[in-house]
Amino acid sequence: MSSMTESSVVRRLEGQDCQWCTDGRLERGRYKGNVAVVCEDCDTPAAQLW
Questions:
Q1: Number of Cβ atoms within 10 Å of the Cβ of 9
Q2: Residue 1 resides in a domain
Q3: What is the pLDDT of residues 1-50, one digit of tens each?
Q4: Sign (positive/negative) of CA torsion 45, 24, 27, 6?
Q5: 14 part of a folded domain
Q6: How far apart, in whole angstroms, are the C-alpha atoms of residue 14 and residue 29?
Q7: Residue 48 burial by CB count (10 A; 0-12/13-18/19+): exposed, middle or buried?
Q8: This prediction's pTM
Q9: Residue 9 contacts by C-beta under 8 Å, 6 or more apart in sequence?
Q10: What residue numbers bound the domain in which 40 lies?
Q11: DSSP codes, 10-42
Q12: 34-39 vs 45-49, strand pairing mode
């Protein structure tokens, strides 16, 4: 079993297309005070880490 670090999860998702809107891409950010990967267009989090 491989362990994933916070940064590896973020790196894996960054730059991918958003699953919830047609124009957005995922970027590193914050969601409700936590490290997250959010859509630059619709602000929907794809992953939230705490």
A1: 15
A2: no
A3: 456 676 788 899 999 999 999 999 999 999 999 999 999 999 999 999 88
A4: positive
A5: yes
A6: 10
A7: middle
A8: 0.80
A9: 37, 47, 49
A10: 6-49
A11: HHHHTTPBPSSSSS-BEEEEEETTEEEEEETTT
A12: antiparallel
Sign of CA dihedral 36, 27, 41, 23: negative
Put the strands of the sheet holding 45-49 in their side by side order. Answer: 26-31, 34-39, 45-49
Indicate the number of domains in the chain. 1
Q: Give the pair of three-digit tokens for residue 3.
A: 């362990």
* Per-residue confidence (pLDDT) for residue 8, from 0 to 100: 86
d(CA 38, CA 50): 15
Handedness of CA 46, 10, 22, 24 (dihedral sign): positive
- Is position 34 within any domain? yes
